[in-house]
Specification:
Distance between the termini: 14 Å
Number of helices: 8
Order of helices and strands: EEEEEEHEHHEEEHHHHEEHEE
Radius of gyration: 19 Å
Bound molecules: ligand DP6
Helix content: 25-40%
Largest sheet: 8 strands, mixed
Number of strands: 14
Strand content: 25-35%
């Protein structure tokens, strides 16, 4: 009972930032992302009779501790759904996500695990059912089921039955590119899970964040449909800044930015002042992702690479949804 699946990571243009239910992973706001072809995980799940426990190899290294626990917990959901709680699995994942790029490998990781695991155990889920299940591994992973642009609809049901991602526009609809700017210095890591929890619980800016989401979502969807790059970029950049502002008001306060993060943000704004339409977004880490159009790829890459402290710039096109190998 073996299957292999591939899933790409995604970058949120409207961020998921906060949970209303931590164990079911139900968000306090809907979010929207672009799936990226440059960053993916390939996972093989092999359920076998006679195994006494799950085994998880990541890039050929056995994984233990927290990451192992999250994988077995997620396999428990799959086993329960299939009525096969007697089966354990060998799981083997290969990440083509340079971890230094700070692009959440949990998104491609849990999407690939969900797709391979359900297929291996003989469940036939449609995309919506798969997205809903994947959400319970990692929230942002629910959006990686689809290629191109997708929206994770927060839903309102207590059991999470209406909280899953839906496709907004395919990878072929619009060739928007993303440069992941890798920085040499790091800040002390607050995981996205811990960061969003502290923000929801303590930041007086949090209600303002929530109030602004529906307008951002409505406007960015319209801009994506009409391929209005300036509008899409403006909304994404402003939404990112709002999310990061909530962390500054948390108790204790924190930020994911460092001096180099600020420097890249300023360079992006300078490029814009010089007539090149580029916009940034940042997740729960110091690295910056820059949105641009194909015709500006050369100049954007060159300018970003010239910033002192930038160690790498990884370019990506829109990517496809999950596939089975
Ligand atoms: C800032 O999906 O990693 O990247 O659901 O706790 O696993 P968990 O969190 P995760 O959070 C991602 C937060 C973000 C924004 C986003 O991707 O929407």
């Amino acid at each position: 009972m073996k299957a292999t699946a591939k899933a790409h990571t995604n970058i949120a243009l409207i961020k998921y930032w906060g949970k209303r239910d931590e164990s079911l992973i139900l968000p306090t706001n809907s979010s929207l992302s672009l799936t990226l072809d440059g960053f993916y995980t390939t996972t093989t799940v092999d359920f076998q009779e006679g195994l006494m426990q799950d085994r998880f190899l990541l890039d050929d290294q056995p994984v233990e501790g927290d990451a192992y626990h999250r994988v077995t917990q997620f396999l428990n959901l799959i086993r329960r759904l299939a009525g096969r709680e007697d089966l354990y699995a060998n799981v083997r994942s290969i990440n083509a996500v340079p971890t230094a790029a700070g692009l959440a490998s949990s998104a491609s990781g849990f999407a690939a695990l969900a797709a391979a695991g359900t297929k291996a155990i003989g469940l036939e889920l449609n995309d919506q059912e798969l997205s809903r299940l994947t959400r319970q591994g990692s929230g942002s992973a629910s959006r990686s089921i689809y290629g191109g642009f997708s929206e994770w609809q927060m839903g309102s049901e207590e059991d999470g039955s209406d909280s899953f991602a839906v496709p907004i526009a395919s990878a072929e609809h619009w060739d928007v590119r993303v440069a992941a700017v890798v920085l040499s210095s790091r800040v002390k890591k607050v995981s996205s899970r811990a960061g969003m929890k502290r923000t929801v619980e303590t930041s007086p800016f949090y209600p303002g964040w929530i109030d602004s989401i529906s307008k951002d979502l409505k406007e960015i969807k319209a801009a994506i449909h009409t391929k209005d790059f300036e509008k899409t970029g403006q909304i994404a950049e402003a939404n990112c800044l709002k999310m990061h502002a909530t962390t500054l008001a948390a108790d204790p306060p924190f930020t994911y930015w460092n001096d180099l993060t600020m420097r890249v943000m300023q360079t992006v704004q300078e490029m814009r002042a010089n007539g090149i339409p580029v916009y940034f977004t940042i997740d729960a880490g110091p690295n910056v992702k820059v949105l641009y159009l194909p015709e500006h790829e050369k100049s954007v890459e060159k300018t970003l690479r010239e910033i002192p402290g930038v160690t790498d710039v990884i370019l990506s096109k829109p990517g496809q949804g999950i596939s089975y190998l």
